[in-house]
Amino acid sequence: MRPRPTSGTPRRTLQSPLYPPAYLPLYLPLYLPLAGLLAACAGPAPKGARGAGADSGAPEASEPTRSTLPDVMDIDRLLAHLDALDALSAASARSRVLGSAAFDQSADYVQGALEGAGYSVQRVPFTHGVWSETGPGVLAVGGLSDLAAGVDYQNFGRSPPGRATGQLLPVDIQLPPPGGTNSTDSGCQARDWDDFEPGALALLQRGGCSFSEKLAMAEAAGAAGVILFNEGQADRRGLVEGQLDDVLAHSVPVLDATTAVAEALLERMAVGPLTVTIEAQVAVERFPTVNLLADLPGQTADLVVIGAHLDSVAAGPGINDNGSGTATVLELALQAAALRAAGEPDPRDTLRFAFWGAEEEGLIGSFAYVRGLDELALAAHVANLNFDMLASPNGLRAVYDGDGDARLGGAEAPAGSAVLEALFTDHFEARDLDWSPTAFDGRSDYGPFILAGVPAGGLFSGAEVDKSAHEALIYGGAAGEPLDACYHRACDGVENIDPVLLLEMAEAAAAATAGAADLAPFVADRARSAPPRHHDLPYVGGCDGARPAR
Ligand SMILES: [Zn+2]
User: Fold this and answer.
1) Distance between CA atoms of 158 and 246, rounded to whole angstroms?
2) 316 CA to middle of ligand 1, Å?
3) Rounded distance between C-alpha atoms, residue 153 and residue 10, angstroms
4) Taking a C-beta distance cutoff of 8 angstroms, is the pair 329, 280 a contact?
5) How far is ligand 1, taken at its centre, from the CA of residue 421, in Å?
6) Is residue 75 situated within a structural domain?
C-alpha cells in the first residue's frame, strides 16, 4: 500500500474499467496505432513539418486551452504512453532491452506518435558490441612456461577476439618508469612505430595516452597482436584491469599483462628475437539499434536537445526506468508542436527531441550521437536536458546540480548548466514544491554532452538509494526504503509509478524546455576538442577506464 494517498496513489488501483489486466494482450494490437491517435489528438502539425497527422476521429484527449507547455502536460496521456510501453514489453519476456523486439516496437511506437503529429523522425542506426569472455586468454612463450592466466596475464577488457603468433617487438618502453603515473607514453607517438615490422606483435607499456589510442596506433602500424602491460610504478605493476572504449572499433587481439611478465619478456628479447603466441578468448555480439531524433524548428538552427533513453534492462520492462522519461519527452514533443501550430511564436532555438538507444549498456546511444558531431555541429548545441526516471514510487524531486553549489561530487558541469538548473528550481519554487539537488554522477545520457562541453540539466526521482529520514519528512513516503525498490527489476512495470510525482516532474520538464528554447550558446567550454570517452566519466570507470568487475 502506498504511504500517502495524495502522492503515489496509482491511478491504476482505481481499476479503470479500460484496463482489466487479464485482457491486456487483447489491447496490444491497439497500442501501435494508439501512438498515431494520441499524436493526432495533440493538435495540428508543427510549422515546417511534413503533412498533418491522420484524422483519428477518436475523442480528443486534450486541446491545449492554456497556452504554456507546463499547463498542457496531461497525466492521462503520460500514463497512456506507459501502458503502451508496458504492453509492448510483453513481446520480449517483459523487457525492452537492447536488441529485443519490444525495444524495436517501442521505437516504432514513439516514431509513430511523432510522425502522427507531423514530425519527420530521424531513425539513426548504430551498432553496440556486447563483449564477453569465452576463456582466460593464452600467452605462450618458449621457455616461460610458468605464466598463469588471470595472474600474470589475461584478456584485455573489450579486446577483439583473435589469435596471433609472431615476433614480439618492444615499442618505446621505459622500465623503470622515469616518474609517477603516466610518465611514460609507449606507442602514443607516430615515431614510436618507425622501426616496427608489420605482422609482428607489439609489447606496449601503459601510460601517456588511452588504451584505445595505443591500439589504434598499433593497428595502423600493422601489428598482429598486442601485449599491454602495467606502467611499472610500485602501485602499477599488477594486471592493468583496463578496457577499450569501443570493442567494435578494433580488430587486433590484446592481452593484459603484469610488469613482471614484461620484464621477463624483455630479458628474453635482449638475447635474441622472441616469438610468442597470444589469444584473446572473447566473444563480441553485435546489436544494431537506433536513436530517434525529431526536430521542432526555431528561429535559428541552434539546438536544445531534450533526451530520454528508450531501452530498459533485460530484467524488466523499465516503466519508471525509463518509460517515465520517454513518455515525458514524447509528450513535450507532441504538445510543443501543437502549441506552435496553434500560433505560439518560434523560440530562438530548435528543439531536438531525442530517444536514446542502449543507455543501459553504458550510454552507448548518446555517446554515439555526441561523437558523431563535428566541431561546428557541436558548437550549435546550446544545452542538453535529460530525463531519466521521473516517477519513482518512493521518490523525490531531484534537479541536477548545474552550479555545483551542493558539492555532491560527480562530474563538473560546463558553464551554463547553472542557468538550466535554475529553470527547474524556479518552476518548483513558483509552485511551492520542494526540490533536492543531485550530482552529475555520469549514470545517464547527459554524460557525453557534459564531456563535450555542452551545458546540461535535468530531473531524477531516485533509484536504488534509500530515502533519508529528512527526505521522507519533505516528500512523504518511507524512510530507509529505496526510492525505487523495483529499479532494474521485473516489477518496474506500470504499477511502479507515482502519477502525482510524474506530472509534477513532467510540468517542470516542460517549463525548462520552454525556458531553454530561448537561450543563446554559452561559449566558454567550447574549447574542448577531444571527443568524449567513456572512461572520462566518473561513474563509468574513472581514469584509464578501470575494467568492470568480472
Ligand atoms: Zn535509466
Assistant:
1) 7
2) 12
3) 53
4) no
5) 20
6) yes
Q: Which residue do the cell numbers 554522477 mark?
A: 441
Q: What distance in Å separates the CA atoms of residue 531 and residue 452, rounded to the nearest whole number?
A: 7
Q: If DSSP states are collapsed to H, E and C, what string results for 180-227? A: CCCCCCCCCCHHHHCCCCCCCEEEEECECECHHHHHHHHHHCCCCEEE
> How many residues are recorded in the chain?
550
Q: Measure 321 CA to ligand 1 centroid, in angstroms.
A: 5
Question: How many domains are there within the chain?
Answer: 2
Kindly state the helix (H) or strand (E) to which residue 293 belongs, with its residue range.
Answer: strand 282-296
Q: Residue 181 and residue 195: Cα distance in Å, rounded?
A: 26
Q: Is there a single domain that holds both residue 92 and residue 179?
A: no
230 and 255 in a single domain? The answer is yes
Q: How far is CA 135 from CA 25, 131, 238, in A?
A: 42, 12, 20
Q: Using the mean position of ligand 1's atoms as its centre, give its distance from the Cα of residue 354 in Å.
A: 14
Residue 1, in any domain of the structure: no
Q: What's the rounded Cα separation, in Å, for the pair 198 and 518?
A: 55
Point out the residues that are catalytic: 359
CA 322 – ligand 1 centroid, Å: 5
* CA 389 – ligand 1 centroid, Å: 6
Q: How far apart are CA 107 and CA 291, in angstroms?
A: 9
The residue segments making up the domain with residue 370 are 21-40+68-130+300-516
User: Residues 330-388: pLDDT tens digits?
Assistant: 999 999 999 999 999 999 999 999 999 999 999 999 999 999 999 999 999 999 999 99
Rounded to a whole number of angstroms, the CA Rg of the chain reads: 26
The enclosing domain of 155 has a CATH number of 3.50.30.30
CB contact at 8 A, 133 and 159 = no
Nearest one of 225, 295, 213 to 253, comparing CA atoms: 225
Q: Tell me the whole-structure pTM to 2 decimals.
A: 0.78
pLDDT tens across 499-511, in order?
Answer: 999 999 999 999 9
